[in-house]
Predict the 3D structure of the following.
Amino acid sequence: MDNQILIDYLPIAVLLGISIFFAVLLPVLSLTLGPKQGAKRNLAPYESGMTAIGEAQRRLPVKFYRIAVLFILFDVDIILLVPWAVTFRKLGLYGLYAMLIFMVIFILGDAWVWKKGVLEWD
Amino acid sequence: MSFSFLEFLKSLVELTTGTYLRQVWGAKPWVDPTLDAIGVILVATFGLLIVLVLIWLERKVIARFQDRIGPNRVGGKYGLLQPVADALKLLTKEIITPSGADKWAYNLAPFLIVITALMMWAVMPFAPGVVGVDLNVGLFYVLAISSVSVVTVLLAGWGSNNKYALLGAFRAVAQMVSYEVPMILSLLIPIILARSMSSVDIVKAQTVPFAIVVPISALIFFISSLAEMGRTPFDLLEAESEIVAGFHIEYSGMKFAMFMLAEYISALFMSGLFTTVFLGGYRFFGLEMIKTASGFALGNLIGLIAFFVKMFVVFVVLVWIRGTLPRFRIDQMMDFNWKFLVPLSLALILVAALVDKALPVGVNDWTRAGVHLVSNVVVGAVTLEILRRNGRKQRTAHEEVRENADIETAAAH
């Protein structure tokens, strides 16, 4: 059984190998064909033609963090929904009710998040 | 069974070469791995080479939208070799790693993004029986692989040591992560209808294309896949006028080309996925099943052509949208996702599950499609009504504020 599953994924492993081959080939080709000037000016980070001021890696606004947290909540919901969507015919009425109750709780939470203003961008 | 060249040619046209070679070679342990390897080599090369066609097509179509001719010098009257010339030019440019860049993150990003773009093609059914590998978790595999691109964008933006790149990467990640939610949620409805996640099973289940059965889900999937790829009108992540090019600003030569390559491959892949999941894939009014009297499976070829025609029509629609719509503002985009698409797709899943459960088991495909279509139209009508009321409420509030302001100014005079 375990063996059979692994054999199913064999072409994927081969495809991964080929993709890695292509992904390495392209920069290597470019390295061999392209010029190597190594001028210091070329290596400076682009900032509209000026010398870069200060650190580039600064702290990010908290709104991006809020989006990330929301995404994780929804992702957990989705992970529960995906297997349910495939098998919900077999689960019968119980599966439907269980998911309905879960979804009601989830949507209530979502409504609370909305009301709290987490979804406002500015 | 011995090898005959004529039979081999016939199997090539029939697209059953794999089965034929299996018969010729017999049951030896090396046969299956070799055939798999040949299959995926074809898939990967296809993915890389089709980009040349796509770039030419996009430039030519967008030129026509803007009343220009587009590429017309390299490779004859139609500029057919323009993408090849571009690729060669990019190959002969210097590759740099900017000073202060995080070397690992910076160099890993283009590498990973090409791999993910190529890996996704493994489960795409091109024609009856022609698929890299028919996984029973096909769509889940696609979603898992495509999620890696979010990490790549963050790697590229963080590793570049550039303010624009970092800003672009944050925007891109916020956008991709947000729109992934409605995309997966709307993809669940075909899974509910087909009762399988295998891409081949989903195509087989579409006696009626799912775009007709559940039009609103198809629309949501299309819109959110646009945002997921970062194409217009959702191309804030590379908004040229604000953040120059976003996360790939510091990349040069082939490394930059790898981002472009991955972008085009995944644009075509998303068109293909939309075709597979909602437009019936290789199905063409049952013609994909026909066999001639001599037992020649002509249907496979028709299926392949049907799939490619549908996929390229969807791709041209993507270009069309790029030529027509302006860019969204970021707050509009986030509002549209979290306050409209996500609640709507959650509601659609519940409705689809309830309707599918309410229908008796042995019901005919067309009846089932009709009932789902009606439920979808009802959901759509309710949504429009809610939007209308909401819009009116906002308008009245706005007008009241303005009237009050007018009164105040009048009183001040």
Notes: The helical segments of chain A are 2-8, 10-33, 40-43, 62-115. Chain A has a mean pLDDT of 81.
